[in-house]
Specification:
Blueprint (H helix, E strand, L loop, with lengths): L4 H22 L7 H18 L21 E3 L9 E2 L4 H5 L5 E7 L2 E8 L2 E7 L5 E3 L2 H4 L15 E8 L2 H9 L11 H9 L4 H6 L3 E10 L8 H10 L7 E4 L4 H10 L8 E8 L2 H6 L10 E4 L6 E12 L4 E13 L2 E7 L3 H6 L7 E7 L3 E7 L19 E6 L2 E6 L5 H12 L11 H9 L16 H5 L6 H13 L2 E2 L1 H8 L6 H10 L4 H5 L3 H4 L7 H12 L1 H11 L3 E2 L14 E4 L9 H10 L3 E3 L8 E3 L8 H8 L4 E2 L1 H8 L5
Parallel strand pairs: 2-11, 19-20, 21-22, 21-23, 23-24
Antiparallel strand pairs: 1-6, 3-9, 3-10, 4-5, 4-7, 7-8, 10-11, 12-13, 12-15, 13-14, 13-18, 15-16, 17-18
Length: 656
């Protein structure tokens, strides 16, 4: 017999919610707004209540992202459940049952569990999927406000939220020239940051940790209330999430006071958390299959405004990606006037069934980012343009990972030219300061430049530039000084600046190092040679060769080479390990973390890979008897497993 319509709909909701969750938690991207997700989730909850059926692997039971990285994993002692939620502040009066609660911010970052032994931080683990987390100890050690040592010497476990502030989020995005490469929100940025394999990147992004629960402690620590636990944690050096006591008589007022702080908050939050202050009472409540009973989340009822969709603007980029942007009649939301919202991709536009003249509901996600919540009329008449809005040439609709995206196929599209030059001048490329996207566009319009190489000929246009709006003698002099400084550059930064498809900063370094920093060898590399480079597969190799096979690309690269001076990276040292490939696993003791050991190897011309393969020369592991997957693979492939001491003997010692 066939399924009922309710069951069919439940399965469809499962599929949609899992896809959205995977994109959000695992891929750090979005295929629907938080508003849409919450609405579908609530619909599934109601269906489960109505039918009395909760299917295995339901999104209402399994929460969080799936573990797919190479970080070590660890099972939590007890499942970390999500919280039940409400948007009705009056309902919290009854929820408290006449008792006192602790009201705090529900921070929008990544949950971490930290363990201390003998007063020292020994482990940091992510929430993961609620049952299994990823060990991120090296990353936690570079958070800006985490105490590495605490006065209390017993074993202690604390739970909290790792976040990146809005100001830090804006700073990092401000250093990224391309619109499509910018991070969507602080939560996605934080998720990727705390799970980095290289904690140097984590350190650069100023992650903060806010403690909110003392999970376990030795028997000599006895607390009767949550607020006492918070006081204790603060005395140990932790930054605790801002919290206040709330009774049934004051909880609504306290929510209002915290709500008033939202416009000034520099940290991302998506609501509040109310927890019973009395620990014994809270523990007596137990939990359901889905939620703990001692806490509940309060989410703000989003301020929603209805407006008319006036236009869908299509914004082109360097890579040819063309993103839709909704333009609607201006409305007031959360104290500001908004008239546009990113739709992110064609799939979202189609799921909303948008059309010009439709009546749409708009809101601000987390009271910050304008989004379309729903389309009330759903005409579905909006279609992706068949011609690029910038150059008028044909567009191409691509489907990758079930997401539809629109691209311009014209290699000479002016938008691509602007964006490619913006990429060329970024800090990790040529590092030419004083050239915003708007300035580059002006220079192109005035024919001061027609390509990247023309930037080195700007002195020929001094008179024109110094009379342009926003430019004077001083700003012109600063620009020219920055251009001149960019004439000396490493091969890797030069390669990255060219904008070769799929070649990021680190990949450019690996390629140039593999070809002994010889840019001519790099540009003439064959696909067969490139696939021998660690991390380069056939697809990237073939695209790389195709790029330099095009006469136009080759000519531009040769012209640029005639205008700059390439220098070998200053950090490269002659060493016996030059050209050798290493994999590092387990704890290290001679270096300040695995990233420091990785840097040591790379400075001496060696390579560090993430996994053991036939190309690996040595696996560095201080525990040679370990049954880890890397050790097993090394034994199967006859790759030597060496300790740090053996490695240092091989490398010729470590300079003090």
């Amino acid at each position: 017999m066939g399924e009922t319509k309710q069951m069919e709909h439940m399965r469809e909701l499962h599929r949609i919610l899992k896809e959205a969750s995977k994109a959000y938690y695992q891929d750090s991207s979005e295929i629907m707004s938080n508003y849409e997700y919450d609405a579908l989730y609530d619909e599934l909850v109601e269906l489960e209540k109505e039918t009395g059926i909760v299917l295995a692997d339901s999104p209402t039971v399994k929460v969080g992202y799936e573990i797919v990285s190479e970080l070590p994993k660890e099972a939590h002692a007890a499942p970390m459940l999500s919280l039940d939620k409400t948007k009705d502040r009056e309902s919290l009066v009854d929820w408290l049952q006449g008792r006192t609660g602790v009201l705090s911010w529900k921070l929008d970052g990544l949950t971490n569990v930290l363990t201390y032994e003998n007063g020292e931080l020994v482990k940091g683990v992510t929430r993961g999927n609620g049952e299994i987390g990823e060990i991120i100890t090296n990353n936690v050690k570079v958070y800006k406000n985490v105490p590495l040592t605490i006065p209390y010497k017993g074993r202690l476990t604390v739970r909290g939220e790792a976040i990146i502030t809005y100001s830090e989020f804006e700073r990092i995005n401000g250093e990224i020239a391309e619109a499509e490469a910018k991070y969507k929100n602080p939560r996605n940025l934080c998720s990727g940051t705390v799970r980095q394999l290289n904690n140097e990147i984590t350190a650069q992004r100023n992650v903060l940790f806010y403690a909110y629960t003392l999970v376990t402690a030795e028997d000599d620590l006895q607390f009767s209330t949550r607020s006492q636990q918070m006081d204790f944690l603060e005395k140990q050096g932790f930054t605790c999430v801002e919290h206040v006591l709330a009774t049934p008589e004051t909880v609504v007022e306290q929510i209002g006071k915290m709500e008033a702080k939202l416009p000034e908050n520099d940290f991302p939050s998506d609501g509040l958390v109310l927890t019973f202050d009395d620990i014994a009472f809270a523990n007596s409540l137990g939990r359901t299959a889905k939620f703990p009973r001692d806490s509940i989340a309060f989410k703000w009822a989003d301020e929603i405004a209805e407006t008319e969709l006036l236009e869908i603007e299509w914004s082109a980029s360097r890579t040819g990606l063309i993103n839709p942007v909704a333009i609607f009649a201006p409305v007031e939301l959360e104290g500001t006037t908004v008239s546009r919202a990113s739709i992110h991709n064609v799939s979202i536009m189609e799921s909303l069934a948008l059309g010009i003249g439709d009546t749409v509901q708009v809101y601000k996600a987390n009271m910050i980012i304008p989004q379309i919540a729903a389309n009330l009329t759903k005409s579905g008449t909006a279609k992706p343009p068949v011609c690029c809005p910038v150059c008028g040439e044909q567009t191409n609709l691509k489907i990758e990972n079930e997401v539809k995206s629109l691209y311009c196929v014209n290699a000479e599209c002016p938008a691509k030219k602007v964006k490619s030059i913006v990429h060329f001048v970024t800090r990790d490329a040529m590092n030419i300061e004083g050239l915003s996207e708007a300035t580059i566009e002006k220079f192109l319009n005035e024919k001061i430049i027609t390509k990247a190489a023309d930037l080195f000929r700007l002195p020929d246009h001094k008179e024109t530039i110094t009379t342009m709006e926003g430019f004077g003698e001083k700003s012109y002099a600063n620009l020219i000084a920055s251009v001149e400084a960019a004439r000396t550059i490493t091969p890797a930064r030069f390669l990255y600046a060219l904008g070769v498809p799929n070649i990021g900063v680190s990949t450019a370094k690996v390629i140039c190092r593999s070809f002994e920093e010889d840019i001519e060898r790099v540009m003439n590399a064959t696909a067969e040679e490139l696939v021998t480079v660690e991390g380069i597969g056939e697809v990237i190799a073939e695209a790389f060769v195709e790029y330099f096979a095009l006469e136009k690309n080759r000519a531009e690269a040769e012209e640029l080479l005639s205008l700059v001076t390439l220098e070998r990276p200053a950090t490269t040292l002659e060493s016996a390990i030059a050209g050798k490939t290493f994999v590092i696993t387990g704890k290290v003791f001679q270096f300040d973390g695995r990233s420091a050991l990785k840097a040591f190897i790379e400075e001496r011309g060696g390579k560090v890979a993430g996994s053991v393969s036939a190309k690996t020369d040595y696996l560095i592991n201080n525990d040679a008897t370990s049954q880890s997957s890397k050790n097993k693979t090394a034994r199967e492939l006859n790759v030597p497993v060496i300790t740090e001491e053996e490695f240092l003997l091989l490398a010729g010692g470590k300079e003090e």
